[in-house]
Amino acid sequence: MTSRIPVRTAVVLLILGLLSLPAPSHAAPPREWRSSAGPVTATVSLSRDGRATLTARHGRATVLQPSALGLHTTDADLSTGLRFTGRSDRRISERYTTTSGRRRQHTAVTQETTLRFSKRGYRLDLVLRVAADGVAYRYVARGPSWVTVLGEASEFAVPTSADAFLLPYDNGRNDYESIHTHATVAAADPIEYGYPLLFHIGDSWLLLTESDLDATYGGSRVRLGPVTRRFQLTLPDPNETSRGPLTTPWRTMAIGVSPP
User: Fold this and answer.
1) What's the mean pLDDT in 199-228?
2) Distance between CA 61 and CA 64 in Å, rounded?
3) Are strands 40-46 and 204-211 parallel, antiparallel or unpaired?
4) Whole-number mean pLDDT of the chain?
5) pTM here?
6) Deepest of 59, 123, 126, 200, by most Cβ within 10 A of its Cβ?
7) How far is CA 148 from the centre of its chain?
8) Domains of the chain from N-terminus onward
9) What percent of the chain has pLDDT over 90?
């Protein structure tokens, strides 16, 4: 024989049950955008607190673990609290000629993705290019008529087991004429290094450098963190000021394998 629960009691129990449920989270869900070309795949992720990271894979090998993205400006910290506002894609096919080399006529085919973020009225575009032989990205900061960058959040988290061929910049002269050192990322000295940096990860190679520099933005270096073992991009001056929109050089990663 079943017992009946009074209607008033049932309603009270239902209300108490609803009140005991966890409150819904108001944080934005994480987002992820992926672009591939041949064996190379780049993934940009946005965490719940608005921090963007970049990951790169070559086939099955992760050559760049999740690495921070963003800019620090005098108007806003565009490395956290970012909100995704849009995306655009285009395919780029370029032809160019070199004066020397095994061949002089070249064709470069690239997939370009622009991810647009905003924070308190300030806009940061991340322009990402992926090709069969590498990944590159740059920032475009929009907002006031002038933009002052205090630093970049850009970092490069190469697997610590990777063999690294590094160019020490802290040589007493601050130039690019040192002899490259050879060590794993885990064992390398935590100092500043100049470009290019070369890494051997399994059967894959990654060469890190920058390109398309001009007088509006300083040439960068990287510093290996003593604890994080990540290469943090550093700028030569306390700030970089340019009329907006400010466009940074490309952070370029050539990716491939040894020739047969």
Assistant:
1) 96
2) 9
3) unpaired
4) 89
5) 0.86
6) 126
7) 20
8) 29-257 (2.70.98.10)
9) 76
The token pair that represents 100 in the structure block: 């020397």
Three-class SS of the chain? CCCCCCHHHHHHHHHHHHHCCCCCCCCCCCEEEEEEECCEEEEEEECCCCCEEEEEEECCEEEEEEEECCEEECCCEECCCCEEEEEEEEEEEEEEECCCCCCCEEEEEEEEEEEEEEECCEEEEEEEEEECCEEEEEEEEECCCEEEEEEECCEEECCCCCEEEEEECCCCCCCCCCCCEEEECCCCCCCEEEEEEEEEECCEEEEEEEECCCCCCCCCEEEECCCCCCEEEECCCCCEEEECCEECCEEEEEEEECCC
Report pLDDT digits (tens) over 99-157: 988 899 988 889 999 999 999 989 999 999 999 999 999 999 987 788 999 999 999 99
